[in-house]
C-alpha cells in the first residue's frame, strides 16, 4: 500500500502515453479498490470500456463491480440496460445473461430473472451460477422441490460450489428433512 501513490502516478503516465494499455487500467482499478476509492475505480472502469469500444467481457466485469459496490435500485436498472446492450453485441455470452438475471433477482423481478437464467442455460446447460440462481428463483416461489432439483444440478456441475451446498441445506431444513440437511452440511465441509 505504501507504494500505491507512486504506482498510480506511473500507471497514469503510461496511460497518457498509450491509452490502449489495458492491463494498466486493471492495475489502477485494483489500487483504487484497495484504497477504497470506489468513485475512482468506477471512473477507471469507464475509461477502460471506452478504450476497448465496450468489449463485452470487460463490460461484464464492470457490471459485476457495480453490483458489488452500488446497490440502489436506480443503479441496478442502469445495469440492466448495460447488460442488454452487451447481450445485443454478444448474444451467446451466458455469463452476462446470468448477470442480467442476477440483477433482476435483486430487483425482485423473479419471472424476468428465471427467463434470463433459462436463456443462459440454453447456451451452457451446466453453468453452475445459472443453475444455482434458478434454484433461488424457485425457492422464492416456495417451490422447494424445483429449488432442490436445481441446487443439486448446480452441485453436480461444480462439486466445489459452496453456495449450492448452503442453498440445498436451507431447502432441506425448510422441508424439515434434517437428515439430508446434515448430510449436505457435512459434504460441504469436505469440499473446502
Q: Overview of this structure, please?
A:
By secondary structure, the protein is an all-alpha fold. Helix content is 79%, strand content 0%. It has helices at residues 4-17, 22-34, 38-51, 56-69, 73-89, 94-106, 110-123, 128-140, 144-157, 162-174, 178-190. Helix 4 packs antiparallel against helix 5. The chain is elongated. 33% of the residues are buried. The model has no long low-confidence stretch (mean pLDDT 91).
**Terminus-to-terminus distance:** 30 Å
Inertia-based shape: elongated
Query: Over all CA atoms, what is the radius of gyration?
Result: 20 Å
Multimeric state: single chain
Weakly predicted, low-confidence segments:
none
Structural class from helices and strands?
mainly alpha
Helix and strand sequence = HHHHHHHHHHH
Report the biggest beta sheet as strand number plus sense, adding barrel if it closes: none
Fraction of residues in helix: over 70%
Mean pLDDT over the full residue set: 91
In percent terms, what proportion of residues is strand? Answer: under 5%
Amino acid at each position: 500500500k505504501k507504494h500505491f501513490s507512486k504506482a498510480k502516478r506511473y500507471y497514469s503516465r503510461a496511460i497518457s502515453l498509450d491509452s490502449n494499455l489495458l492491463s494498466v487500467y486493471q492495475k489502477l482499478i485494483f489500487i483504487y479498490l484497495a484504497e477504497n476509492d470506489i468513485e475512482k475505480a468506477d471512473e477507471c472502469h469507464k475509461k477502460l470500456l471506452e478504450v476497448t469500444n465496450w468489449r463485452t467481457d470487460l463490460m461484464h466485469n464492470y457490471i459485476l463491480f457495480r453490483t458489488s459496490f452500488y446497490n440502489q435500485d436506480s443503479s441496478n436498472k442502469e445495469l440492466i440496460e448495460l447488460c442488454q446492450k452487451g447481450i445485443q453485441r454478444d448474444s451467446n455470452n451466458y455469463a452476462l445473461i446470468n448477470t442480467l438475471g442476477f440483477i433482476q433477482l435483486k430487483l425482485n423481478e423473479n419471472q424476468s430473472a428465471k427467463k434470463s437464467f433459462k436463456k443462459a442455460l440454453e447456451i451452457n446447460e451446466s453453468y453452475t451460477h445459472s443453475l444455482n440462481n434458478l434454484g433461488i428463483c424457485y425457492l422464492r416461489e416456495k417451490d422447494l422441490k424445483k429449488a432442490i432439483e436445481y441446487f443439486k444440478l448446480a452441485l453436480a456441475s461444480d462439486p466445489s460450489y459452496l453456495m449450492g451446498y448452503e442453498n440445498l441445506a436451507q431447502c432441506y431444513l425448510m422441508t424439515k428433512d434434517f437428515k439430508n440437511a446434515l448430510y449436505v452440511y457435512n459434504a460441504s465441509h469436505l469440499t473446502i
